[in-house]
Write a structure and sequence with these properties.
19 strands, ATP binding, Dna Ligase, domain 1, succinate-CoA ligase (ADP-forming) activity, D-amino Acid Aminotransferase, Chain A, domain 1, Rossmann fold, alpha+beta, four-stranded antiparallel beta sheet, 3 domains
């Protein structure tokens, strides 16, 4: 689960990390009151969307002005004007794609006299099952481009869970950022606070870009991006309250209600599969035959007919879907359950696109019999290769 910058900074502030004072704004008329509570005379007005590249982003609407999603205001009046230009308009960044995201929230914070910019992030290294740090002197830039062009400027290391964070980890960060003296001490203290927050809140990723030093010799987290491990959210009801559904795909929200693993993609063949590995293989073979999957959808091993029906409805609601491929290997999952769910869903929402179904495993004969006697226009397939070829041909 992702959260907004201002929410991430509130969490970091609770753990003692240095962040600027700021206030979220939901309505343009709140902007002046928020700015008046800050020291000034410089204010930063930031669009709050779940995507990076806001500073270089552009608004679709002319009314939003020519500037990006992060603007420097030199007066309270200018901060309010920026708020009116940005709220309710669509910001397009390198991460949003051409559709962009509507700005429904802003964050107005106190300006900073920046001396240097750095990059600091923490994430779960799945290869080592450890928390890893990624540090670079090249802050404020596209870290992917830095990794590609000048990988020597990125330092990574992980923390052994047996010992936890140790003082030498903080020194390692300070050395990587070429900080000395009091700034090195501040870096060590900051690393401790960020690590504590990361562990306590079951974070999956914490990115500070940029981490800055100010003209008066202080470290400050100028930006903050945080995502949490979904499987640990049951331990943190306070974090669930931070969820902004307007930033999420409606189909993914609906899928979460039925405990379905669903991710929307840009293709035109809807996929319903049981098991993540089989789902990935299904997506790969669709691409092999020249088409593109519209989604990743894993109904799981013990899905009910109701769950299958919900999954089918989510697929069909996508206007980009021109055909559907159901690929089930019945182990715990029974093929007759899948068949019944598909029939129930089609009766409720109709079937306007080609449907290819490949069933194998537990109760496969019964499942095929149910589908063949349903009267539905279902294209049967013998195996995955056959199914992929048939659905690609059907939409061509």
């Amino acid at each position: 689960m992702n959260i907004h910058e201002y929410q991430a900074k509130a969490i970091l502030r609770d753990f003692g990390a240095p962040v600027a004072a700021g206030f979220p704004v939901l309505k343009a008329e709140e902007a002046a009151a928020a700015a008046k509570q800050l020291p000034g005379p410089v204010y930063v007005v930031k669009a709050q969307i779940h995507a990076g590249g806001r500073g270089k982003g552009k608004f679709k609407e002319e009314a939003a002005g020519p500037q990006g999603g992060v603007r420097i205001a030199k007066s309270i009046e200018e901060a309010e004007a920026f708020a009116r230009q940005m709220l309710g308009h669509t910001l397009v960044t390198i991460q949003t794609g051409e559709t962009g995201k509507q700005v429904n929230r802003l964050y107005i914070e106190d300006g900073a006299a920046i001396d240097k910019e750095f990059y600091l992030s923490m994430l779960i290294d799945r290869a080592t099952s450890r928390i890893a740090f990624v540090v670079s002197t090249e802050g404020g830039m596209d870290i992917e481009e830095v990794a590609h062009s000048t990988p020597e400027k990125i330092v990574t290391f992980s923390v052994d869970p047996a010992t936890g964070l140790m003082p030498h980890h903080g020194r390692h960060v300070a050395d990587a950022l070429k900080l000395a003296g009091d700034l090195a001490k501040q870096a060590g203290a900051l690393v401790e606070k960020l690590y504590a927050a990361f562990v306590a809140k079951d974070m999956e990723m914490l990115e500070i870009n940029p981490l800055i030093t100010t003209k008066d010799g202080k470290l400050r987290c100028l930006d903050a991006k945080v995502s949490f491990e979904n499987n640990a959210l049951y331990r943190h009801p306070e974090l669930m309250e931070l969820r902004d559904l307007s930033e999420e795909d409606e189909k993914e929200i609906e899928a979460s209600k039925y405990d379905l693993a669903y991710i929307s993609l840009d293709g035109n063949i809807g996929c319903m599969v049981n098991g993540a590995g089989l789902a990935m293989a299904t997506m790969d073979i669709i691409k092999l035959y020249g088409a593109f999957p519209a989604n990743f959808l894993d109904v799981g091993g013990g899905a009910t007919a109701e769950k299958v029906t919900a999954a089918f409805k989510i697929i069909t609601v996508d206007p980009n879907v021109k055909g559907i491929l159901v690929n089930i290997f019945g182990g715990i999952m029974r093929c007759d359950t899948i068949a019944e769910g598909v029939i129930q869903a089609v009766k409720e929402v109709g079937l306007k696109v080609p449907l290819v179904v490949r069933l194998e495993g537990t109760n496969v004969d019964l499942g095929k019999k149910i589908l063949s006697e349903s009267g539905l226009n279902v294209i049967p397939a013998d195996d995955l290769d056959d199914a992929a070829q048939k659905i690609v041909k059907a939409i061509s």
